[in-house]
Design goal:
The protein is an all-alpha fold and about 270 residues long. About 70% of the residues lie in helices and about 0% in strands. α4 crosses α12 and α12 crosses α13. The longest helix is centred in the middle third of the chain and has 28 residues.
Amino acid sequence: MSAKITIIRPKKIFHFSDLVEVWQYRELLYFFSWRDLKVRYKQTAIGVGWAIFQPLITMVVFSIFFGQLAKIPSDGIPYPIFVYVGLLFWQFFSSALTDTSNALIGNQAIITKVYFPRLILPISTVVTKFVDFCISSVVLFGLMLYYGYYPNPTGLLILPILLLITFMAATGLGLALSAVNVKYRDVRYVLPFFIQLLMFLTPVIYPASLAGKYAWLLAINPMMGVIQNARAAVLGTAPIDYSILAIAFVGTLVLLVVGIFVFKKTERYFADIL
């Protein structure tokens, strides 16, 4: 009597059972996230202090060149705290996108030997960057106390939504790019240029009002709605723009669905190509 052989094949398209499977492997998700954190800050002089140091120094440089020398307006808000709010969310998005696009390449030894839901790798990368975001937020609290800004309690309720939008944007685009990066390694060269260009198309160092009648074009970029409403929520200097927030949410939700679709469609070839 011949032995029964079970062949596990990845699904061609996304199914709800994929989310159930990710939840079943949630301990592995935690392990990958914790591993990335330990590897990143292992044998460093200041450890997790780098999560604070990088956006802090960037804020100082931007404040000198764009705030003091270029005299870029900041909607009546002190430029350091104005730009730091934008940098917090932008660096969360950009760093998560960069690392997510390389998640499969960086874990090829595991992918080719052991089965687990591949979606866990990109998601764990974004979770790791969220931890960095939380650590970097400490500087924001200090700036708010120094400049005498206090958040609007009602506005703070939308912060989870802003983080969710940022998460979906980085994960959706990262999933698609990580799948493409498996076959075409050009992604690692194109992506840094794309992120640098996109930063100047996002109101990180300038207010959206600077674009005048063309400000609506910036709304195509979901991070514009995130950063603009983050400033309104945290600093309480402007009302929440729910229309832009809705556009950003719907746009990133579509982006996430497309990213998952591209990822699942090419998942079956990962182990062979890597």
